[in-house]
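Handout, section B. The chain below has 646 residues.
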Amino acid sequence: MTYNRLFEPGRIGGLELKNRIVMPAMGCSLAESTGEAGARIIAYYAARAKGGAGLIITEITRVDDETGVGTPNQLSVTNTHVIPQLYRLAEAVHAYDTKLFVQLHHPGNQTPSRLIGGKQPVSASNVTCRVIGEEPRALTTEEVEAMVKKFVTGAVIAQKAGVDGVEIHAAHGYLVSQFLSPYTNKREDKYGGSFEGRMRFITEIIMGIKAYCGPKFPISVRMNGSDFLEGGIDEAESIRMAKYLEQLGIACLNVSCGMYDSGATIIEPSYLAEGWKKHLAKGIKEAVRIPVIAVNTIKHPSFAEQLLEEGVSDFVGVARGFLADPDWGAKAQEGKDSLIRKCLGCMECFRILNDGMPLGCTLNPVLGREFEWGDAKLNRNGSGRKMAVIGGGPAGIQAAVVLAKRGFDVTLFEQSDRLGGTVNLATVPPNKGMLGEFVETLQEELKENNVTVKLNTPGTLEAVKAIGAEGVFLTTGGTPVKPDLPGIEKALTAEDVLAGRAEVKGDNVVVIGGGVTGLETAETLSKDHKVTVVEMLDKVGGNLYPSVVMHLAQEIMKAGGAIAKGKALVSVENGAVTVKDMKSGETASIPADTVVLAMGVRSSRPEYDALKAEFGNRLVLAGDSARGGQIFDALHSAYDRAFVYE
């Protein structure tokens, strides 16, 4: 497909952009501990510039070292010592004719005290962010005036480093947003009260940047189209703000929405569709004449093109799309949409970041590791050597693709009649259709890299030897765990239920296991049954992002189901299960016409002994065959092992 609007040049202030694709700011925690742009973050952004972004806006970039820390390893513009490395970052991005803005940021009451040395967070007022749960102190008038200077200093440092412009982060409930929104601004001095008072902080920042950087240095403002909170910024107020900001002479507006307290509206999980909030940006675009950038949960280039055609925005913000696939833009321009690994909305990236780790992605094993890994770092020493990959799930396909790129002659064996493994079952629950597209993309990658695929063909020792393989990757996944408990033979497995191989009978269904598979299976069955989820831990969802867990739990309970935490399965009876309280040891009975087990998987290694005897250390285990886990684990283990294979 040809995307005429998406790849049409555009202008922001005096800058000409090669297309309408913007990679907006996302915290990545890839900077050096000094706040400088080191080799890893430079490689990360350079990959997205090469991959087709017309404008990249850096991650949240710190303007205040005392109270303004957003992530452990965050870019900083608080001191001139960062200029040389920031200049190198700009050079790396500019090499691909991509422009670079630095986003000026202070989290305000949305930073935990542990990130700022135990100090009390600061804000416009002493309004506590319910997610962080720590009461901030209100900045004094003098401190606000000093904070204005810190934002201006950050812009000056960015300009001196050769950056093309700056963006003031005035959205998502961070500090500037806390001044703008009546939900968080309860001040009675010149920085509060009236609309003009609430706008004074950002006004002084903008005027200061213009005074020191000159009127032609582009300033973007990231703003909320709605806070989605009672008493906060609504659509009418956002339009009023947009008109006001335009009068101050900024170059563009970058429209988003939500704050920590409004939950999933700020960073959308899979159950919110592409474009669900497009009315927010369109309302603002219709009210101003300066360009509007907008994020709209964009996954597909065709949808981005549609937004531009509808006049929703002048530029499209493709955020997590560039995390899942750094070549999102380049593949779209080349008409290779089917090869784009499209964001699932699984929220794994933010779960990892919130755990204090560098950014990661379920679908992209290279994310955050571009400096060490990636296609450019591959040792292309395959020289046509024959390799066998056994198992056509995500791990097997990932390993096959990496080995093929390295120059091996790869044959993939899959005993069933289709590729994708258990991911095909994961597409069954509601809002999981993107996983189906991911399986299709994996199949296209196999074709693109000339991997020979043998369906309906078990990867036996004889089959592997028949192709003359010098090594084998065993990626046959796992088998569902069925504990040795009384009556367990009466229970079904989630895998059989989702595959349609087992019939779920009766009104009362008990799902044993509250991890991702258990919750999603329970949500699926809730349409026709009353489902109780039993989990032995004190929480459900495992490592799922909190907003995803909350949504799944709400859907189950909304349908009349229940979640029993801290309970272990003891036995399966006729019409009931017996469970034991993990703290008290007391047992109880739960009605159960059908019992479904979702207790994880054990590694499955068919013919392991025979293969090991034949191939020795040239037999490599990956995915669930090595260790049970989620899609993230399968892809990452397969990628890494195929990358380092000798």
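Note. DSSP finds 20 helices and 27 strands in the chain. Compare this with the example in section A.
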